[in-house]
Amino acid sequence: MGKTKSYEEINEKIRNRKAVVVTAEEVSRMAEELSAGEIVEQVDVVTTATFGPMCSSGAFVNFGQYDPPIRMEEITLNGVPICAGLAAVDAYIGATAESKYDETYGGAHVIEELIAGKTVRLTARAKGTDCYPSREVEADISRETVNEFFLFNPRNAYQNYSVAVNSLGHTIYTYMGTLLPKFGNATYSTSGELSPLLNDPYFRTVGIGTRIFLGGTEGFVSWNGTQFNISKQRNDAGVPTSNAGTLSVIGDAKAMNTRFIRAAHMEHYGVTIFIGIGIPIPVLDEDLARSVSVRNDQIEATVQDYGRADKPPLGLVTYEQLRSGAIELQGKTVKAAPISSLSRAREIAETLKGWIEAGSFEVTRPVQPFPGCSRQEVGGSHE
């Protein structure tokens, strides 16, 4: 067995500002000349990141009570219906909820505007009770006036995602963007070799309690994401080739930055939200050194036909091919473009790297592994 490190050893180096931190792209280049054992010796933490549309997102807000008090039952913010049915003045802002008056504006925009410090119009209705006699409230709110405002996203940071194409004779509009007829284009979403869960494909260091970068501030992995799947469809590099693991994440939206949380509207589809996530991967042993060294030419994604309801698979392509701007599909050259931002993901990875180097962000051992993932000892096999 080669050299191993512990979380405690790495965090001690972080506190003393002696930790060696590199981004996932940087370590992939290093691996062209160094062995896995040499990477363990030289690197302590690898930062990963993604910035893309993550529809399964939203924020909890507690408005604070009014005089006389109200038990809110129907709530809108800037005309967007908000989920009530929690407690008197608790609510959940779903990112994809759409305004009653403008289908291009929705919960994602409300979240972004609150993060930006803007004022949002609250309208609430209630039947009135003995202890909550008010039946109506209209007021302006902001992140400064509400008691709590925190992001809680049920499904973020897909481990891998399909490449979308359209075989039909007409354009279709999807959450993967506009897909032109007859395989006129292809779209994809993750950041490839920089993508968090592709750098720890067996979830050895990512689990419940993992500290992460979320929207410009510190956040945490709160649970496995919805539709979480430990994929058995892996290529020679151990990377899933289809939609696999996901994360449920939480963080203080009052401390977030709209550079890393952005609302968007997909044409003829609906509202979505771009979320910036960064995860530090501690280089505990040679297995993890190999995982974080994965390259775009080793990461494959499944091409799926979104023109059909069952989205049949049409083959595999590598992220090296996708990043080239074109893929080959059924004898045709198809233009490929991301709906996520690699440049913003790189910025997140560099920001997180700076936090760790400054000693202000330590790596966190998960308090519990995800379903199907075993709690592994440092240096243990991922099998």
Helix content: 10-25%
Proportion of residues in extended strands: 25-35%
User: What overall form do the CA principal axes indicate?
Assistant: globular
Structural class: alpha+beta
User: Care to count the β-strands?
Assistant: 22
Taking all residues together, what is the mean pLDDT?
96
Largest sheet: 10 strands, mixed
Structural domains: how many: 2
Order of helices and strands: HEHHEEEEEHEEEEEEEEEEEEHEEHEEH
Q: DSSP helix count?
A: 7
| Span between termini | 16 Å
Poorly predicted regions: 377-383
The Cα radius of gyration reads: 22 Å
Structural account:
The protein has about 375 residues and is α+β, with helices and mostly antiparallel strands. Strands 1, 2, 3, 6, 9, 14, 15, 16, 17 and 18 form a 10-stranded mixed beta sheet that branches. A 4-stranded antiparallel beta sheet has the order 5-4-7-8. Strands 10-19-20 form a 3-stranded mixed beta sheet. A hairpin with a 2-residue loop joins strand 4 (about 75) and strand 5 (about 80). The protein is about 15% helix and about 30% strand. The longest helix has 16 residues, at about 340-355. The two termini are about 15 Å apart.
Which key phrases capture this entry?
alpha+beta, 16% helix, 10-stranded mixed sheet
Topology, element by element:
Layout: H1 7-15, E1 21-23, H2 24-30, H3 36-42, E2 45-53, E3 58-62, E4 74-77, E5 80-82, E6 90-94, H4 107-115, E7 120-125, E8 136-141, E9 148-156, E10 163-165, E11 172-174, E12 177-179, E13 186-188, E14 211-214, E15 217-224, E16 247-252, E17 261-266, E18 270-282, H5 286-292, E19 300-305, E20 313-318, H6 319-323, E21 326-329, E22 332-338, H7 342-357
Parallel strand pairs: 1-2, 10-19, 13-22
Antiparallel strand pairs: 2-18, 3-6, 3-9, 4-5, 4-7, 7-8, 9-16, 11-12, 14-15, 14-18, 15-16, 17-18, 19-20, 21-22
